[in-house]
Amino acid sequence: MTPIVDPALATPETVLGALDFAGVAVFAATGALAAARERHDLVTFAFFGAITGVGGGTLRDLLIGAPVFWVGDWRYIAVCVAASVAVWMVGARPWRFRALLWLDAVGLAAYGVFGAAKAELFGVAPLICVVMGALTACFGGIVRDLLAGQPSILLRREITVSAALLAASVYVIARALGLDAWPAAFLASGLGFALRAGALVWGWSLPAFPGAGTRG
């Protein structure tokens, strides 16, 4: 079967490969911020950063039978540590949480596309590629929230996982319809980012189950 993505999309030499490192850095920074809320030490900052930064990609690679990406490339862990140290150095600035929400939106969109693209390279069916894209973008944050004792992103009505699903879905569909890889990647990541941005600016959320909150 001919892959619906270009093999070059999964290499660090490409623009999307650069976004892979950027996404790791962004998610590592959110992990460090979780440690900051609990006033942990620098080692815990780095641990939270690494778990969050590579968690989603690790699960994806294990599920699709690929070599775990960070084991063969030390730069990913180095990026996690550097991002964690940067959060430590920035300190308690009032704007840092808001800025990282927007960076996280970029990471969700890019990782949704990247995860789907890499899964397809290993012969995964299109629907499962979408699932892998969402897992790549979201699983690290789920682990971070569990370790920090915070509500999981899966339990928040604010649109987060849906943005990653949208990015992955649009990419897979666009490539299946014959769109070139780069336009498909930018279209998909742009739409995923726009959905997450709408949630941040206007508070978009999916409808709740009827009667929610009426338990007696």
Polypeptide structure, described:
The chain has 216 residues and is an all-alpha fold. The protein is 69% helix and 0% strand. Helix 1 crosses helix 3 (75-90), helix 1 (15-37) crosses helix 4 (96-121) and helix 4 packs antiparallel against helix 5 (126-148). The termini are far apart. The model is unreliable at 1-6 and 9-13 (pLDDT under 50).
Task: Give a short summary of the structure.
With 216 residues, the chain is an all-alpha fold.
Low-confidence stretches: 1-6, 9-13
* Straight-line distance between termini: 54 Å
Q: Domains counted in the coordinates: how many?
A: 1
Which percent bin holds the helix content?
55-70%
How much beta, percentage-wise? Answer: under 5%
Taking the sheet with the most strands, its summary is: none
Count of helical segments? 7
Average residue-wise pLDDT: 82
Total number of beta strands? 0
**Overall shape:** globular
Q: Helix-strand pattern, N to C?
A: HHHHHHH
Sheet/helix structural class: mainly alpha
Rg (CA only):
17 Å
Topology:
Elements: H1 15-37, H2 42-64, H3 75-90, H4 96-121, H5 126-148, H6 161-176, H7 181-202
Helix pairs in contact: 1-2, 1-3, 1-4, 1-5, 2-3, 2-5, 4-5, 4-6, 4-7, 5-6, 6-7
